[in-house]
Each structure stands twice: as C-alpha cells, then as structure tokens.
C-alpha cells in the first residue's frame, strides 16, 4: 500500500501553484510564489554595479539571497540576523538559486549590472528552495522586461526559463513536490532544476536512510521532468497576463 | 501655503489601515498590517519557557524582533543576516516594540511562557515601527485568545490595547502618520505609543533640523492622540471579525 | 508623602555638576563631566576626512560613540569588546548623543572633517547619557575653538549650546536628574535634550509600569526645562575659565 | 577529438589513490588520503558526549568538519579562522561529508558518543570533497576498530563502506575523477557518493555552462559507479594491512 | 652622545609614579595608576563564581581584561567594541597581566571566587601594560583586604607584591621606563615583571631592529630590577595610607 | 635526582629535527618541520602587493599566520574557523613568528611584495611555535631563492638565519626543547629566538609557579644558545640539499 497524500493528491501531482506578480511595489520584479502552503516572496533588484570579479569584464552578474522568517515554520526558529550568521543550510540554498538562474542568463547581454534575487520564505511547508527558484525566474523576467523597455539592454539576456521541483520516495512510493510531512518521512529526497528546453541544471539527490538504487533514481528523474514541464507552463501563463498594479 | 499630501490626504488623516488576521498559518497569531503602502507581517509565537531573568519568577515575558526585507525599500539594503549583525536602528525599533507591548501585559497572568512578536517589513513607506506596534498587538491578542481557549492561562494577561503613530512637522504643518517622502522632508519627527485608555507609553520626538518648541510639541501630541484613538478602533473592529481560515 | 532623595535633595534640584576641561592631553577636546557620582569622560577628536555619505559635499560630520567601563556599575558587566558586539542600549545611546550634537552644528561651516565624541562612563549612577551629551558639547566647543585658532574653520559651526537631563516620576513625585536608585524605582522615565535657546532637540519618554498622562508629561517637561537652563549655565561657566594645563 | 589528460590518463581512469593510515598519532583514526596531487588529512575523534538533539536517545552522532590550508591551492586563499567565518562552500562540503558517513552508520550501535571527522586539505588539485569522504571512512573504520577492541561498542556500527568520486564532461568527453584544470574547464560537474554495495548516497550534478541531457547524466553515473567500486577496493586493501606505528 | 630624555630625566630614572586608590566607588578595588602621562584605571571585581576549569576544585581564579579608550592616544584608534573584536595586541596584554598577578596569588587560599582586574587606559604615553600590572596589584590588594575584613577568606591569598617596568636601548643607551617617543625609537624593548622578593615573573624582550647581545640584555635586566624595587616601594607606600573616600 | 626524559634524552639535547623541503607543491616555499613528534607545515606565499602601511614605501612585508588542526592534540580542540575567531594564544604566536622573521629581513631589498608564512600544526607535542619559526625560515629562504632566480629581487633580503627553541626548568633541572609532558610540568618556561650570528631576537620567559631567579635565567639562556646553534646548522644542512620534487 502506498502513502496517502494530503487531500488525496496523486503521487505525480504538483500542489496548487500560484505566481503573483508585482506583489510589492519597489522592486524591479516581485513575485509571491506558492507551492501549496509554501509561500516565498521573490524580488529582483537591479543595481548598476558588479562584484569585483566582474569589473571591467563587460559582463553582469546574477545572484541570490535566501531567508526564512522566524515563524515561517511550525515552531519558531532563530532569526539569523540576531544570531549574527547565516546557517550552512541557508548558504547552500542561496548558492543553488544563484547558480540555477545564472545558467539561463547571458551575462554579456546583461551588461555590467547586477540583478539580486531575494527569496524570503513567508510560510514553509516543504519545497521552499524549489518554489524560490521557480518564482525568482519570473521576478527576474519582469526585471529584464523593464531593462528592455528602458533601453538599458538591447536584447534579453534570458536564454530560457528555469524551474525546480522536489521529488522523493516515501514508504516505497516516488512522490512529486513533497510537502513538509512527506519530506520529513522520506527515504530519498531529490531536488531537480531544469530549463524550459528540458535540460538539467542541478540534480541533488540525498539518501536519508538507506542508499537508493539506480532504478529509483530513474523514476524520480522522470517524475521531476514531468513536474517541471508543468511549472514552466505556469511561469509562462503568469507572464502572459498584464502586470498588475502594485 | 501648507504641504500637499499624496492623494489630497488631510493633515490629520491616517492612511488606509488594514489588519489582516491569520495571514500565515503556523503562528499562534499572525497579522499583516498596512498603513497605506507600508506593510508589516507581525507573528506572535508562544513558547513554554522564559529568559534567564524570569526563571522561577512565575512571570512570563513578551519580546519583539524586527526586520526589513532587503527590497522592502526603494533601493535594496543589505540583508542583516548576511552582514552578520543587526543595525542600531533595528535594535532600537525592536526594543521599542517590546517595551510598548509589555506595558499592557500582566506578566504574572501570562505565567512562565514567552510570546515573541516578529515584525517583518514586506514593504516600507514610512511608519514601519508604528505599524508594527499596532499590528503586533492584534497578533498578540490572537495568541492570548488561543491560550485562554486551551486553558493554559486562566484570565487574559492583556490589560489594554496599545497602538502607535508617527507625527511630524513638514514645511511648518503638523501632519499625522507620515509616509516616506514626508518623513524625509520633516523638521520634527515624533513617534507616539498610547494605550486604549489614552495613556502615553512612549513619546520619542526628534528635531531633524531646527529644535522644536513646546507649542509645536503640543500640537503634535494632540494629532497623535486623535490618530491613535482611530487605530485602536481599527484594532477592535478587526478582532470583532471571526478568525479567517489560513 | 513623597519620595526621600539622597542627602535631602529637592525634587527639582540637580546633583552637583562638574565639567573638568582638558582632563586628558591628546584629544582636541577632553571633558570629565560629573552629575553627582556619575562620571563620563568625553573626548572630541578632529579628523580630516568624512564618512562616504558626506564625501564631496563640502560638509563635515559629527558623530558619537559610547561605552561603559565594565566596573563602572555596582556589579561588573561584560566588556563589549570581549563579547564582540555593542548592546542595543549602547547603540541607542550613541545614536542619541550624535543626533543631539548635530542639531546645533552647521555642518557646512565645519567643512569636510569629522569630529567624533567618545563618551566613556568611568562611574555610573544614573543619567549617563544626559551627562554625556552635556559634557560632550563642552568638549566639542574646545575642539572648535582649536579649529578657529588654527584658521581651519573661518567661523564657528556651533549655532547654540545643547544639554540634557533625565526626569521621572517616583512614587507619584516628579523628580529632576534621577540617580540610579531613583531610575530603578520610577514609573515614568524621560530624557530631554534642549538647546541653549530653550528649543527641544529630543524628548524620549517611557512608561516603565503604568502609562502616563498628559498632565504628568507636562510637569516633567517643565522640570526638565528648568534643569537644562542651569546645565547650560554650567557649560558657559566652565568655558569662561582659561583652559587648564593637561 | 577528445580532451588530453595529464600523463595520458584514460577518460575512465582514477588518479593514483593512496590511503596512509595512522598519519598522526593522537587521533583514534588518522588517514592521509591522496587522489593524485590532492591530499587530505582525515582524523576521527571519539568523544563520550552527543549534541543536544541526541541526548538521552541512546544513539550517537557522526559529524564532519572541513578546512583548506591557506596555501593548499595555487594562489593563497584567506585563512577562514582569521576572516572569522567559514565560507558557504566550506559549510556545504562539511555537511555533505557528514551526511555521507552517517548513511552507513548505525547510530544506535554506536551508543551515546560522537565521532568527528576533521578533513583538512594539505594540497588541492580537484576532488577534495570526494577524497575527504573516501579517506574519512577509513579513519572512521580505524576509530570503530578501537571502540570494538576496548569493548566500548559491542558490534560494529558500520553497515557498509562509503566512497566518492567526481565526474564531469570536458569538451564533450565524460571524464572520471577530475583534477583541477579539468574541473575548471568542465561544462558539467557531478559528485557521486556510493556505498560498498553500490547504492547511491548523494548525487550532486551541476551544469556549469549549458544544461546537460539525461543521456549525459547516464554516462556520468556509469563512470562514477565504476570508479567508486575501485575506490572501495582501495579502502579494503588499506584496511587489510596492519596498522603502522605512528 | 646619549639620548636626551624629556625634562632631563636620567637614563635609570622612573617617571613620576602615582597610585590613587578608590578612584571609583563601586569596585572592590579601584586604582588610577600614573607613570608620567600614562594613566590606567585598574579595578578589581570580586565575583562568587569560577570559570568552568576551576569548578569544584576549591580554588579561585584571577584574570584580567585590558582596553584603551579610543582617544587615549595621539590619534584616535578604533573602538574595539564597535569593530567587534579585540586586537591581538590587546589579548596579548591582558593575558600577560593575568599571568603576572596569578603568579603571586595562592588560588586555594582565595577559595572558589574570581577576581577580575579591568585595566582601562585613559591616557597613553608608553608603558601601559607595565603601569597596568603595577596598579592592578594594588587594586587586587584592596579587594583582598575587603575579603579578609568580611571574613570571606581566612588568610590573605597574596604571597608577594608584583610590579613591572619597560626598559629599552635607544641610540645605544639603555633606558628605564620608556615613554612613547622612546618606545617608538628604540632598538630593543623589554618588559620585565618581578615580585617584591626580586624574582622574575615575566621577561619579554624583543629586538625591534638589529638583534641584541647577551651583554645588552644583562644591562637591561639590571636597570629593570632597580626600577621595580622602587615601584614596589611605591605600592607599599600607597597601601600604607588610609583608604580615601570615594 | 633530576627529571627522567623520554627515551633517556639528555637535559641539553634537542629532539630529532627534520626539515622536509617542498612538502607541498603550490607554495613558493613549503617545509614540514619536525621537532620529535611535533610537526608543523610551513608554507611561504609570495604576493605582489603590500598592506596599506607599506604602500608606496618601496618596502615589502613579511607576516605569519598560525593554526592548529583540531586533532593535532591529545584531545580534540575547537576549530577556530568554526568558532569564528582566533584565540589569544593563536594571535600571540603568529605575531611572534612574524616579528622573528622580519628581524632578519631587509624589507627594502624585498621590494613592494608580501611573503606570508602559514604555519599549520599537523601534530603537537610541545614547542610548536619554536618549530614553526625554525621551519618557516627555511620556507622563506626557498621563496627568496625563487625571487632571486626569476630576477624579481636583485639581492637576497635575508640578512641572517633565525631559529627558536624552548627551555624550561622541570623539578629543578633546566631542560632544552621541552616536549608536551615536560611543558605541562615545568616551573619556568622560556622561548628564545636567535639569529645565526648568535644575537637575541626574542626572549619570552614565564614563571609558571614560583618566580625564577637571575641564576636560573642565565642557565636557561645558555642552554637555548647552544640548542639554537644546532638548529641553525640543521637549517643550513637542509638548504645544502637540492630541492626535491614535489
């Protein structure tokens, strides 16, 4: 017998996905992404400067920062600003988001400017990093649209879409888009980041208990592939709408 | 001629106030407060422990932490968690919020538990600290209602409401509830915190340019007093509604 | 019956005030200020550079730092340098001192240089921040006199004097210039900073227990006003003396 | 034409592997592992205490810390102890090493004690994290042998071996065990951790430039699988030797 | 021709020494020590607890902390509390002071309590660490006298006096008790700490330019020996006076 | 009866000394130095830049950093990078190493470049700082040889050799080159740094229990002098060998 998901969700079903553009008014791009109860505010900020390793290169930079509000979770966690440092987990996630987005950006076309994606989790229920990547790409797209409109870039530096989802094996059943209770219970957990064209950007699989087999990995990759196709459709549908008022 | 406010707002008018309860689902109280474009997420977290100075006292503790998302503002600010420390401004504000709330709480009636109010600014347009106090009190009230419902406290530790507003003199005109451009332009800036019964909890007045007179101070205090009465009404109206689903 | 003060001090009396100029020899201004047993060493240091936000502006900067020796107090406190960070209280106080002094300085007349006021508490008995402001202004004055004498500034950037005092209500009696035991016992505590001309620079009132009324606030402001007039006289008397040898 | 490797190494060949046991004398396990010019000192330290989340659980803990000597690399890097924090990369690696080892340890059989694997890179030439995992497992094995010999554990908590290797695609050719120049040139980079029984523990694949296809991933996983089998043989061969004098 | 000292001081002469007891009122011992223009406030704080490595040992602990006010020096230095860490020089000095005092204390006779000597430099003109040791011992003596008077210790834990002085070779001339300009000009610099009985506690000699010979070292040690005898006399003379009012 | 040393070592005998050049391949100089079981990896890194206080001076800089691997010692110590700061002991040692090496370097002959000596203790058994100085000088020599060979410096900036040893009194017997158990047991402990020509660079003597006499000091200095002569011979012998392959 397989694992029973919340509200009878199928093993290969995503949670309801929402991509609410212009959620805040100051940022060049601002998207509230929801994967079920997981909600992440992703803002894109354009700054006319680059980090030292890019100065004079003619190329720009795209980077990300990640944070979790202290009570985004079931029990309150420490505020990282008060503790005085970011956890290893936080740094790992923000490095992943940054790499994932840079993979679809032509930094030369961006020119010597930086776009920073701030991904702040308002409410957590599993999959915060995959929701963050998926939402941040939409925020990045809105920021790029602004750069094109103002003539600051001549052609879009975005080569493709990028989105992400988690997959895992719970009680022997491969599941798509794990929520928190599934994540806590799973034997194997994999985060997959793919482009709109279906190429892999990142694959991070971890055995939580026993090691996993090649066959299990193949099933998880197939689930992720199908899920990401639907996420990319959701990104495109969101961008097809007119930008709402802030 | 006096200063022209956005959308023809009167000098003694508040911006539109919203208090959206149960904005997130995990916290014992969770309120999104809006003062115009300023939006602060206030969560109340109940924990069954107290800081060292209260251990064994039979009394509880109420404290606050404050943060600003990096792109809550017109230009992106540093993430305090990444910089590794909270600014003096952040610490000053979170100490103010904590003191203001404790002034209306009977810590003995709360028992040996801590309620932490996390006030995180999603969008800033002036008055983030006063919005935070006003919203945090509603979140605190919802958390206390939960403690009463579960029988963990026998009577409400809340002695009164507390709310706050900023006032200032811009081009010689005393104004209520300053938005960002007014705050940046003002000569004198005052944050006032008052109880539902009309007592003063905190008065923090600062001359930005020239010193201010006693007469100016009196006019500002009167403006604040009237504004806070309306904020307390808004708090009560919000609490009179049934708690929405998360 | 009202509260009995140490040595029969009247409710509206200051403690003995001393302003010992040139207490140390290296600084451009150096004043040991005493409010009773509270003793704060205030030095003014002139540096020919400005912080980034003033570069190229033609204006100077005045800033303050505050510290408390570990055994300035009844029981030893942590050394902030050893703990690796300044407390919220320390930051709040040094920001207050800096703002208060800048309010009476014409930064354009100062030119592109910085004057830093270091206020270090050698012995604490209540009112360290108000003593610091009062003494720091005298140190600042001595530093400015040096700049005028050497021709580095053409006219004094000091527009007025500034001094500060605390007031509070203890057992129902409004008291001027609280010493430590009074501060610990008071219901309402207010720090007031005023110019020589009698304008308000900062008013920071805090209800420690119950909220305070408008009438109480008025009585406290009147007490502070009278006290600050006497402090400004003491500043002027100290400056009227020849500068002692170091 | 495919990429030419140093000293004519075949695309599917490991660099020379050495596992020098008891490299230092104080640690319960101490292994200098070499993958070609990459050299990592791995020590296992047994302590009779556990972190808070394991106290009273009857279970032990296995954790890892990673560091790189400042001049392990071609150009000198900052010393993390002097900078005052570990980089995101360092934290990511030490979390990976810890998870990988815990996957083959029965924490209940270990009992309430902690084994810490310190992996310090003396010389870096690509693959430091995979060498560290491979060497740390041997150090862990020696520490466990000591616990068995002294009767502190009744049966070995080690369920299997674990080893790791990097694979990547350089100029279209999939290569095993990348050295530094290959790592810098590669399009896709994957670190794979597997058990002695051939199960996957971690798979971390990253597209450096273009995204990678499922077919490329399959070829990389096959290369890694074969390489890890040989590494596990090398671990077993090293453990079959008598423990040298320190 | 030899080096000309300020005010014609002889090569083997100390600067004027002052030991002003009860300089502040809260500490169990409080001494303002002056070696010429160098002035250090040394307070001794008694606390009824010991650090972890002494718990349950029946022994006490004596430790020291050292700080320099930012404008104790000719040009303003950073405030260590604001920078967030103590410099290597500060740590070196406070470790030296602590070791020097412990050398003359019977920790078992002290019982399980800690005496902390805070040495804060109000004005620096060379020799701050030697003045600190010399003054701190007097503050420690006053604290011990209080413990004896209150019966908390049965016999004095002080086995002897301890004092310190710097010596150095400037332009070929060995000099006693270097002031700042001499210290900056010297070839060899030595800090010597000795007991009242004439035993060595610490000898720290450093060649600033060329290495120094055994003969030079012998001359410096002889100078230091004679100087410390006079400092110990000054300590005894200060303690022979009745304790002044604070 | 005097103290019995390990393996019958004479009181005035060094432990076996090894200086293994080119221990690692990337650094301009790299020496593994052993004093018995104490092993320190010393690398010299040449960088074409100088710290701010040397910019534009035409002079170079030589500095050192010191670290101890967590399990270099009998029981595991904290990793300083993880704790977020270097201990006072670490800073004291690295400052000593830097000063000792600079004493024999002509910084003008070095030109505007920096040589950093990283001294990392792989295994500790007493005398890590003296081994570090002795080994670092050889690494520095190899780096300088490279600069001469490439024509970047015209003449050697090394004016002499420098080496160091510890001496101490254990149970009344003066001993040369203390190992850990001797160091822990000794009454007086002295680290001596001398040049090849026999001049003193640093003398740091510390009484651990009772103060020490001038006669004891003289015996310790004589022991150290003889020991350092032999260490300088060992340095010269090591440098007389051809540089091995890495």
From TrEMBL, chains A, B, C, D, E, F:
Q: Which GO terms describe its molecular function?
A: 3'-5'-RNA exonuclease activity; tRNA binding; tRNA nucleotidyltransferase activity
Catalyses which reaction?
Answer: tRNA(n+1) + phosphate = tRNA(n) + a ribonucleoside 5'-diphosphate
rRNA processing among keywords: yes
Keyword Membrane among UniProt keywords = no
Top EC class per UniProt? Answer: transferase
Which InterPro entries does the entry link to?
ExoRNase_PH_dom1, ExoRNase_PH_dom2, ExoRNase_PH_dom2_sf, PNPase/RNase_PH_dom_sf, Ribosomal_Su5_D2-typ_SF, RNase_PH, RNase_PH_bac-type, RNase_PH_CS
Q: Which residues form the Exoribonuclease phosphorolytic domain?
A: 14-143, 160-224
Any one of the GO BP annotations: rRNA catabolic process
Its Enzyme Commission number(s) read: 2.7.7.56
Q: Which UniProt keywords apply?
A: Nucleotidyltransferase, RNA-binding, rRNA processing, Transferase, tRNA processing, tRNA-binding
Give the residues the record marks as binding phosphate: 89, 127-129
The UniProt entry, under PANTHER family, shows:
EXOSOME COMPLEX COMPONENT, EXOSOME COMPLEX COMPONENT RRP41
Assigned protein family: Belongs to the RNase PH family.
Q: What does this protein do?
A: Phosphorolytic 3'-5' exoribonuclease that plays an important role in tRNA 3'-end maturation. Removes nucleotide residues following the 3'-CCA terminus of tRNAs; can also add nucleotides to the ends of RNA molecules by using nucleoside diphosphates as substrates, but this may not be physiologically important. Probably plays a role in initiation of 16S rRNA degradation (leading to ribosome degradation) during starvation.
Partners and quaternary state? Homohexameric ring arranged as a trimer of dimers.
Q: What is this protein called?
A: Ribonuclease PH
> Which organism encodes this protein?
Piscinibacter sakaiensis
| UniProt lineage | Bacteria, Pseudomonadati, Pseudomonadota, Betaproteobacteria, Burkholderiales
Q: Which gene encodes it?
A: rph
């Amino acid at each position: 017998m397989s694992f029973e998901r919340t509200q009878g969700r199928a093993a290969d079903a995503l949670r309801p996905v929402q991509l609410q553009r212009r959620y805040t008014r100051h940022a060049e791009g601002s998207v509230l992404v929801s994967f079920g109860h997981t909600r992440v505010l992703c803002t894109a900020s354009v700054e006319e400067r680059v980090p030292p390793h890019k100065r004079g290169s003619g190329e720009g930079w795209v980077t990300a920062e990640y944070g979790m509000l202290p009570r985004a979770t079931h029990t309150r966690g420490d505020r990282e600003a008060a503790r005085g440092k970011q956890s290893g987990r936080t740094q790992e996630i923000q490095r992943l988001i940054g790499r994932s987005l840079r993979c679809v950006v032509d930094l030369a076309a961006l020119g010597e400017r930086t776009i920073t994606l701030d991904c702040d989790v308002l409410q957590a229920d599993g999959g915060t990093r995959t929701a963050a990547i998926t939402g941040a790409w939409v925020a990045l797209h809105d920021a790029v649209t602004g750069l094109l409109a103002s003539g600051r870039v001549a052609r879009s530096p975005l080569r493709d879409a990028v989105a992400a989802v988690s997959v895992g094996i719970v009680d022997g059943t491969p599941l798509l888009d794990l929520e928190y209770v599934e994540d806590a219970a799973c034997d194997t957990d994999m985060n997959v980041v793919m482009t709109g064209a279906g190429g892999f950007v990142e694959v991070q699989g971890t055995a939580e208990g026993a090691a996993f087999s090649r066959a299990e990995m193949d099933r998880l990759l197939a689930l992720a592939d199908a899920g990401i196709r639907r996420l990319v459709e959701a990104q495109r549908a969101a961008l097809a709408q007119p930008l709402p008022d802030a």
